[in-house]
Amino acid sequence: MSLPNHIDFDFSTGKDFTIEFFVKFSSLSSFKALIARSVTNSDSTFNLDANSTNIRITGWYSVYIDQPHGMSTNTWYYIAVTREGNTLKLYKDGILLGSYTGATNFPNTNTFTVGGDPLSGAGASINGKVDELRITKRARVITSVPSAAFPDS
Known about the structure:
Helix content: under 10%
Strand order of the largest sheet: 1-10-3-4-5-6
Largest sheet: 6 strands, antiparallel
Radius of gyration: 14 Å
């Protein structure tokens, strides 16, 4: 899924956010993009991707978080990324996998994609499903896996 530039997807410096969703992989191999906001040759790129062992948040030239995930195929997992101030956090099933504190700038300058990365082509698309994507313009407190569909408000 691709969404054009919009102020709702502006994650530039100083803006808190939460991106959360459920994912189920049919296969896990090399790194595949779960969420991407790619800007050619720019450290401002935002990419959340996973391979068979690790999940990570990267910029064009930076790896902010890179942690083992323990995920397998054919199982739904809840993934959340938050930024509050200068701290990025990555969660799986309500458990903090890793964090990074430092300046990160993910501006609203390119397409926001789910399940792939347009700069990397079809080879970066996940083999699986993403469901219940929610983007919030604040850092939510992540303590558990949601037990119901996300509300519309």
